[in-house]
Structures are given as structure tokens and as C-alpha cells.
Design brief:
about 425 residues; alpha+beta; four-stranded mixed sheet; binds uridine-diphosphate-2(N-acetylglucosaminyl) butyric acid
Length: about 425
């Protein structure tokens, strides 16, 4: 088991490159199955969620080759309809295989991805959407079992602007007969990336980046090559870490146009931030003093991302006044509160929101990550705190961050990983 050791209180200074986006890469990997041939993908991040997705693709017949961040997926021959449970169970985005499998095999058997610590996260909307596109679901207790001789276009209105459901519908619609309209589609940049990738393979999609997508089905998609965009959540994690610790940090290859709300929030926290969209750089200067934020809620894009909510709470715990943060996407995403309180934070949870009395400073202690983004936020808290922290649960963080320890240590943080 690995542990991360942090000696807090060091300013962060320097430049750090941002990895390819996990949440853009995962649906694009699922979508490679729609192409009867080779797809070349650059800037695939080296993280465990991607390893699981590659295992899933291989398990049904895709042949993959990975070198230096470039992944080649050959989906010429898909020959199985079910996936190994170990890779499905640990990753909710396995549900994104539904539409591609229905196109390629006309049938799919998938274990329910199940709940997870950040909330219930049901898959009812995925199933309803595939039904509207013509799939039939066979009742099975632990398995999702679906069949579709042919997926047909339709008009779909989503009750919640779900990222994954929008992605599944897009993948179903690009090869379905007719024109599909998705009303109240989610607008996250990762959905636009999926659409742009599919367009590069010959798909016809209009309204990319809007809440209304119009997709005209085509007969086939062709081989293509695509580069994964930078990860806005990793960029936000490093930006907030610099604000929490103080210092001057430049993010290179930053997805500036996807970070508007995060940059605005960074400024509200008291940092000076310069963002250059053309150069894809963000420079943050901060003195380590953090301003409270009277009220902020997470929201669907372009709102404040739920994936950075934990990091924000860690910073506000150290601020100079009272802040309130409401979580609007996942009902149970305040798992780090108890850890922060053991570091001296004063926080109460109340009906989907937290009230934070900034205490001016946190102190280091033993910490345990229980999920990916909460784990990254605890690293951020450890860096800001006075004294030493030791963090377990590192495997959660490896799901989404290629080398958070190496990156922060290159910025001057006193942080190291050890096998225990
Ligand atoms: N929902 C349902 N039924 C469904 C699907 C979703 O009720 O069938 C609910 C969810 O429970 C949630 C809301 O709809 O309350 C929105 O969830 P959404 O479907 O948008 O989330 P997702 O597609 O499962 C993606 C990201 C998450 C990110 C959310 C919100 C990927 C692989 N995952 O999840 O990323 O938090 O969108 O932006 O893209 C992470 O990277 O750590 C992460 C959790």
C-alpha cells in the first residue's frame, strides 16, 4: 500500500504541465468501438480509470497498443457481449459501453456499476434513453442486459442534464437511422470533445457546446486520429493548491476556455490570475491568505464543477470568514469534511450544503482518501497546513491524476510517496 507524506506550509513556485483529460478520454475510448478499424488517440492520461477502460475494450476483442501517451485501438473485430466484472465494478463510466455495444453486437451484458461514495448515482436515465432509441432491456437482477437489432433516431428530453447520459445518446445517435435531437443535453466540455472526435470520424453533429444537439445518423464512421484536451479538473486542483499555499505558479497546456468559473472563483478567493487562451497558460499569484466566499453552489457546466468542490472547501476552511458551499450534483460529496475537521477546520453540514468558519490555518495529521477528488483535496489541505500529514487511500487518487506528487514536488512542495 502506498502513502503520501506531506510537510505543509511551503509556497508553490514554478511551471507545471497539465495532463490529458480523464473525463474526455473515457467516453472517447468507449466510442472507438463504433469505428470498424483503427483509432489513434494522443495525450491519453496514464491513470487507472483509463487502464480499466482499455481492459474492458480488450475483453470484447479490441486490440490496443500504447506508447508515450498515444493509444491505438483497433476495433475491427468485436466478438463478445459481456465484460469482466472487476473492471466494470470499479468504474462508473463502464456504462458508456452500452450504446457502442448495441451498435456493434446488437446485445450487451454489463454488471450494474452500482452506487459509489459520492452518491447513489443510478443508471435509470441511461436505460430510459437507450429504450427510446429502440433497445429492449431484459430484467436481470445484477446485470444490465440489452438488445437492439437496430437503434433508431428519436427526440429525447433529459430530465437532468447528465453528462454520461448525453454521451451515451450521442454514441447511439451517430450511427442510428434518422435525425436525433437531444433537448436539455449536458454542455460539459468533455461532451463537446466526444462530438468533435466523432465528427473527425465522419459523424454529423450540430449544436456542439449547446443544450440542444442535433445528430444525423450516418452509415459508418471511418478511422481517425485525435488529441485529448487537457484536464480542467487537474488544472483546477493545481490552481487551488497554489492559492492555498501562496506562491506563483504557471499552468502550461491549460484548458483556459473550460476554466472560466474556476478562475473567477480563484480571484474571489483573493488570488491574482492571468489567463491566456491563445497560449493555453494560466498564471496564479497568491499570498496564502484566503478570502471567504459567502455562497457558492456547484452546477452543471458552465457552473462551478462538483469535481473541484472538495478542493474549494479545503481552501475555505483556512479562509478569514464564513463561507457556504452547496452541492447540487452529488448528494454525498462532503466526505472530506470529517478529515478537514481533524485538521482543525470548523465546518457543519446542513441539507446539501456546508457552512465553513474559516480558522486561518489548518494543522497536519493522518488522513485517509475515500474517493478521487476528495483525495486530491486532502493533498491540497496537507500542503496548506502547518506540520506533517500522512495520507492513505492513494489508489483513489491514481484513478485521475497521473503524477500529482511529482507535479507538486516540482513546484517546491515537500511531498513524497512511499510504499508502506
Ligand atoms: N443521474 C441519475 N440517473 C442516471 C444518470 C445520472 O439520476 O441514469 C444523476 C446522478 O446521480 C447525478 C446527476 O444525474 O446526481 C448528474 O450525473 P452525471 O450523469 O452528469 O454524471 P456522470 O456522467 O456519472 C460525469 C463525470 C464525473 C462528474 C459528473 C458531473 C465522467 C467519467 N464522470 O459523471 O466525474 O462529477 O459528470 O460533472 O465523465 C470525477 O471525475 O471524479 C467524476 C466523478
Amino acid at each position: 500500500m502506498e502513502s503520501i507524506y506531506i510537510e505543509g506550509g511551503t509556497r508553490l513556485v514554478g511551471e507545471v504541465g497539465i495532463q490529458g483529460s480523464k473525463n474526455a478520454a473515457l467516453p472517447i475510448l468507449a466510442a472507438t468501438m463504433l469505428i470498424r478499424g483503427k483509432t489513434v488517440l494522443h495525450r491519453i492520461p496514464r491513470i487507472t480509470d483509463i487502464t480499466h477502460m482499455i481492459n474492458l475494450l480488450q475483453s470484447v476483442g479490441c486490440v490496443t497498443e500504447y506508447e508515450d501517451g498515444t493509444l491505438i485501438v483497433d476495433a475491427t473485430d468485436i466478438n463478445r457481449i459481456s465484460f469482466p466484472r472487476k473492471d466494470v465494478d470499479c468504474m462508473r463510466s463502464s456504462i458508456l459501453l452500452l450504446a457502442p455495444m448495441l451498435h456493434r453486437m446488437e446485445e450487451v451484458l454489463l454488471h450494474y456499476p452500482g452506487g459509489c461514495v459520492i452518491g447513489e448515482r443510478p443508471v435509470d436515465m441511461h436505460i430510459r434513453a437507450m429504450k427510446e432509441l429502440g433497445a429492449v432491456f431484459i430484467e436481470e437482477e445484477v446485470l444490465i442486459h440489452a438488445k437492439a437489432e437496430k437503434l433508431l433516431a428519436c427526440d429525447i428530453s433529459l430530465p437532468i442534464a447528465s453528462v454520461g447520459v448525453t454521451e451515451n445518446i450521442v454514441m447511439a445517435a451517430v450511427l442510428a437511422e434518422g435525425t436525433t435531437r437531444i433537448h436539455y443535453a449536458a454542455r460539459e466540455p468533455e461532451i463537446s470533445e466526444l462530438c468533435l472526435f466523432l465528427q473527425s470520424a465522419g459523424a454529423r453533429i450540430k449544436g456542439i457546446g449547446n443544450g440542444e444537439l442535433v445528430i444525423e445518423g450516418v452509415e459508418n464512421l471511418h478511422e481517425t486520429e485525435y488529441t485529448i484536451v487537457s484536464d480542467r479538473i487537474v488544472a483546477g486542483t493545481y490552481l487551488f493548491s497554489a492559492i492555498g499555499c501562496g506562491g506563483e505558479v504557471t499552468l502550461l497546456d491549460a484548458p483556459v476556455s473550460h476554466m472560466e468559473k474556476v478562475i473567477e472563483t480563484g480571484r474571489a478567493l483573493g488570488a491574482e490570475i492571468e489567463a491566456y487562451e491563445a497560449g493555453q497558460t494560466v498564471t496564479v499569484r497568491a499570498d496564502g491568505n484566503i478570502k471567504s466566499i459567502p455562497f457558492l453552489e456547484t452546477g452543471v457546466y458552465p457552473g462551478f464543477p462538483t469535481d473541484l468542490q472538495s478542493c474549494l472547501i479545503a481552501l475555505l476552511a483556512k479562509a478569514d470568514g464564513i463561507s457556504v458551499v452547496a452541492e447540487r450534483i452529488f448528494e454525498n460529496r462532503f466526505r472530506i469534511v470529517e478529515e478537514l475537521m481533524r485538521m482543525g477546520a470548523k465546518i457543519i453540514q446542513d441539507d446539501g450544503q456546508v457552512i465553513i468558519w474559516g480558522v486561518g490555518g489548518l494543522f497536519g495529521t493522518e488522513l485517509k482518501a475515500r474517493e478521487l477528488r476528495g483525495g486530491a483535496a486532502l493533498i491540497c489541505a496537507g500542503l496548506m497546513a502547518q506540520g506533517d500529514s500522512a495520507l492513505t487511500g492513494v489508489s483513489y487518487i491514481r484513478r485521475g491524476y497521473e503524477d500529482i506528487v511529482g507535479d507538486l514536488s516540482a513546484l517546491g512542495a515537500s511531498i513524497r510517496m512511499e510504499e508502506i
